[in-house]
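[job 4417] fold queue: 2 targets
>>> target A
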Amino acid sequence: MHTYTKTPHTALAIFAHPDDAEIACGATLAKWATQECHVILAVATQGDKGGDGDDPNRVAEERTRELLEAGRVLGVNDVIQLAYLDGELANTVELRRRLVTLIRSFRPEVVLTGDPTAIFFGDLYYNHRDHRQLGWAVLDAVFPAARQRAYFPEAGDPVDQIEVLLSATLEPNAGVATDGFTEKKIQAMQAHRAQLARYEHALDQAVFERARQAARLAGLPGEAELFRLVRGGA
């Protein structure tokens, strides 16, 4: 595993639900935002089936407010919602077209999303379908679609090679040192009250311990977040 020290000029984080990016890579995004990186957060679903689930429209509105609040905490420059219904994401041509349009519009050097190959986490949890579907769609959009003009020519000019950092992975090969930014990550997670309020009393300790454990795995002091670094094409 190596230390990922690059600070991109532009980074695009694409995740399925309103709280996913904060949990997966909030400290990395907060760190980059302080280093003059233009950070864009794109969220695929409304999160309408999260929270108490009683009124999907109310839940979606509440989670949008929380998403914007968390974005301000992290220093995100742009928040984009694709507004699919929770639980109904699919790796379709239409979704890939929208993702390619985002990529060609913002032209990031780095895209962050969840690892769709990570399915079973022990016997306690397996990865949400929305995470898996979106992860594959993002990878398909980054390469080959965004790089080749014949794919979605209406979406803009092709981009150069993009690095992808996959979070929530079972095969990490890169660590980002996040000393001093874990607290920002926790504050951003706390903004997502509809989904995470039930973890409030244990959140600080759990997030800090996970950050320290990630640093140890990466051979870093202090705190870190882990990713699987992949590149599409040669």
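>>> target B
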Amino acid sequence: MNRVPISPPAIPVLSAVYKRPLWSVMIPVYNCNQFLKETLESVLCQLLPEGEMEIEVVDDASTDTDVEVLVKQVGKGRIKYYRQKENVGSLKNFETCIVRSKGELIHILHGDDLVRPGFYDKLGSLFNKYPEAGAAFCRYNCIDENGKSLYTKSPESKHDGILENWLFTIAERQHIQYAAIAVKREVYEKLGSFYGVNYGEDWEMWVRIAKHYPMAYTPAILADYRKHVNSISSNKYLTGQYLKDISFVTELIQNHLPSESKESILKKSRKYYASYGIKMAGNTWTALKDKQAVDAQIKHALTLYKGPWTYWLTAKLYFKLALSKLWHSVSQL
């Protein structure tokens, strides 16, 4: 089984015999027991009837708890449950979510993220007002494992509407999290599912959609994206693998851009993520004091982009590390 498809997996068109709900809330999970109950409750409290919204947990063979029992306890029959026969990896699990969905609009909500009251009503109204949109998304708040706010995403626009020149904006760097976006099923049917990498695969997808469709937006903060040490992305930070994945995604994104824009957007994107990688290396040192992890991230960051700014950031970080080690040595005297 290919856990990371090398091209977008095809999504079959639904048969016309289905009586379809408007929404499919598909919840991929893998070992996120401590957060799943809260995630499910955040959807249920929206109080959309079953005929209007299907809710299904798609379990990638979790081992931390009996997810089916938890779904039954929380959902009381309102939430469907499907378990993979074996662990297939995040991309194949997302593909399963899309294939199993019956709704016209698909929301892939990870089992550790949350929606706020009004999410589905608001995004549904955007699709009604802008029927040409292939996807609609909102601002989001980032929280930690305890639900504490870390930051709030800056707005893309002050008002609801179709975003202008969005392809070039989203191609430069990631602006959207899964929790904050809904996509028409027909869009996935036309463009296929996620592929290529396990980190940044959603960024490529949002660019792919922006190439073919307008995207609607609201600056209302209606979703919470959770960062925590057990998340899939966090496991790649210590080795710098996430920066290698981002580098690969920047090349994939080139396929969606007009030739006259490719070089400038690629340069901006790589410069931004090189700076981001150096910043994350600093965060790694602050949290873990792991010099090897810092070195790995710096190495991959400078592979993305070399220039006066990134060299300055690197020198500044290593000076900070040297001071930290010196202070520690002095304090031991």
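[job 4417] complete. Note on B: Residues 19 and 128 are 20 Å apart (CA to CA).
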